[in-house]
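Here is an idea for our session: we take a single protein and study its fold together. To get us started, please write out a protein record for me. Once you have written the record down, we can walk along the chain together.
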Amino acid sequence: MAKQSVLNQPQPQRGLTFDDVWAALMETRARQEETALQMKETDRELKETGRLVKELTKNMGGMQETDRELKETGRLVKELTKNMGGMQETDRELKETGRLVKELTKNMGGLNNRIGDIVEQLVSSGILSRFKELGYTFDKMSRNTVVIGPNGDRREVDMELHNGQDIMLIEIKAKPAKDDIDDHAERITFLKNLGKYQENNVYGAIAGAVFPANVKAYALKSGFYVIEQSGDTMRIETLGGTFKGKKW
């Protein structure tokens, strides 16, 4: 009877072993590493979004609507940074922000094109008479001329004034930059070796709605006439009558 009582006694529960604790620690560590990776990827995407926003800000000029959209994008980025806790929701919002940035970039391109068209229209209105005041008697105007060289290289000229002896090649930008000045100089050098440009005196001009002071100075130093917006028309900078454009 005594032996039977011992056998029927309840067995004590097994306590946690070292292996149990170690397995739990490894699982916790794996989850922490996975969370860290997700945080790192989210941080990288936020930095990339920030870089795009900075780049857009740098190139947006003085466009009021673009500025409003950039501020809205910045607000979204700050809100995303604040609410990073939920990874899934953050990922969705990051994708939406990326979509907004792409849409904004696309719209900026269209806006720049529209402004460029307006500037081109302003330049073409009365430009012949303005250059006549400087001693150039141009009687013909061509727009968006494409010239193809012997090797298939092509160059496009926004506006060309000519009279059978002198040619004025005008590059038109909403907001010219130094790179635009260098590109136009290269364009004229290329064209000077071709056809009518070899046979005529070739001059250059840069036109813009917004002309930063340093870019304007660089254009004049490079020998280009500067055509800039003045009210609802355009004026040619001559430095008080002392400037004479470079003849290529």
Notes: The helical segments are 2-8, 18-59, 64-82, 87-124, 127-132, 178-191, 195-199, 213-221. The chain is about 55% helix and 20% strand.
